[in-house]
């Protein structure tokens, strides 16, 4: 195109081409003027109509690549002068693409209805022939031929617009609006693959914004409003992921939300956090992580209770029931902990720490802590009667022979509710755990057929023999159960090693009687405490060792305090040095900037100063010649007045023949003479003061000896009194310890007898 052609003329030529059905040539003409280098200097008011017409033709002809290139070029031209024009063009591009998709859907529906010639005919010959080579229905084929191309074009339009709007603070609002529209597109047409790509693209944009924060008009994540908009977009992404049942993408969205929440200086809205914990609980439930599902449900309950919106009794009962039931459904036997010898190896600690961070918890929750929190908050009085009964059966009552029979109607009631029926499978694990824990306190061994009768749940809750054996093996592997299965006798034996450590959580199960291992541990604990108390009183070597260890610790602490003090002082010096260095660097930088500004000003004023300086120099020389004589006379008179005030007399006749240097010499001589006289007087005074001080000290010596004798007698008297008091106190302590030793000596025989009986 010729370089002198104006955009208005190009737009007019394009309209003429469109009038004769030459859309392709019109589009190429507009594309050429938009991508031309001379367009950068074109006013936006003249270029915007051309751009709008260009976008219409791109959508009409489905030219996505041409539209992308033209929009990028227009963004580079207009972003520094007219951001609103960019938003108008991009909004028109998206709206036209949506309109084309809606028209394609209407056309596909019309074609599907028009294809049916006879409404009473079951199958046409054409449909029978097509069914032999394809399983697709006619409606699906029509959608694929008519609607799918426009869906692809709309998706590419969203991607193009987001790429253009990214990392520009002035286009941020439209960027978030386009993101929300893209989420709605994925939800409306159930586009899971495109949704994953969209989420990944948004993450890349956020990372790029963090890296390029120093650029002009960059996204500032420290701005609360900007961060809030990103949070709203991430919550919309989370809701869409849950609705599309893309749980892995939903979890990644939760991590994105948590990262932005940690950056935010504003507290999040309660409704927003409630949505966050609700979606997080659903994600954990789908992944069968019942522990963190219950924790998320508990956090959701807390947020809803703290909210301003009052909950109805039905909603309160429903939420409380879900919270308590989710806590009860947490398996007692861990799925990740493996017992190796005397150690517990938990391979999921890093993962649990990560998930706890998402819930804003300082440490990983446990089943006991979640149930305890639910009881403290009074959820037991708000839940349904079935869940209250389930809690009593599993956590309070002791009934190994009837636990399954009592829980069966409760499971039937829970299964009637679709939301609560998903907890039945994990509840089976808890029921079996409680059953075997309670049976182990009543029986040493039972028949396996007897256990099968106890867990004889009706359909569809039945538990097979293989499931029970697998559960026992898993519990033994995790160290939660201590059971031996004897297939020859068809029985199970509960091991009762008195020295084995139990894995049952405190408060987790009602106990009929203490186990042998608990009895042994209690006796050994009491014996250890008694022996420790006796050793602290009887064994002198032990006491001396403790005293020596205490003294060593004190000395080590003193040395450590001194070292820490020195290190602190050294660190303080380093910090002060660095602060001074940073201050000097900053000062130097400011000085450099100031010098640059001054240099520029000096360059502008240099010529004027040179001209004025030459004129001033000539006038100054003349003025100096006139004033030098007057200055000399004035200085001479002033110096003479000062000398006269100081007592130095000068003959007025000789003053006219002297200059200032001669007068200063006379002044210096007179001053030196006065200084010598002053020094002589000071010497005499110093000698007199010295003799007086010697006389004072000579008179003081006898008085000091007398005071010393008095002080020595007083100190001796105080020493005798304190020594007497110390001896009396030591004797009283000795007699008390002798009495205690006699009392304890009577126990030595019993102790030796008990020791021999215990060891042999």
Give an overview of the whole structure:
The chain is built from 27 helices and five strands. By secondary structure, the protein is mainly alpha-helical. It has a three-stranded antiparallel sheet. A two-stranded antiparallel sheet has the order 1-2. A hairpin with a 2-residue loop joins strand 1 and strand 2 (343-346). It starts with 6 loop residues before the first helix and ends with a helix.
Gyration radius (Cα, Å) is 48 Å
Question: Strand portion, in percent?
Answer: under 5%
How many DSSP E strands?
Answer: 5
Helix content: over 70%
Average residue pLDDT: 79
Taking pLDDT < 50 over at least 5 consecutive residues as the criterion, the unreliable ranges are 115-122, 133-138, 336-345, 502-512
Query: Any idea what the shape is?
Result: flat
Judged by helices, strands and strand pairing, the structural class is mainly alpha
Largest sheet: 3 strands, antiparallel
The largest sheet has its strands arranged as 3-5-4
Count the helices. How many?
27
Termini distance? 111 Å
How would you sum up this structure in a few lines?
The chain is 75% helix and 2% strand. By secondary structure, it is mostly helical.
Question: Secondary structure elements and their pairing?
Answer:
Blueprint: H1 7-19, H2 23-35, H3 44-61, H4 64-78, H5 83-114, H6 125-133, H7 138-165, H8 172-188, H9 192-211, H10 224-243, H11 247-263, H12 270-286, H13 290-306, H14 313-328, E1 337-340, E2 343-346, H15 349-358, H16 367-376, H17 385-396, H18 403-415, H19 418-421, H20 424-442, E3 445-447, H21 448-454, H22 465-478, E4 483-486, E5 491-494, H23 516-538, H24 540-645, H25 652-655, H26 660-745, H27 748-759
Antiparallel strand pairs: 1-2, 3-5, 4-5
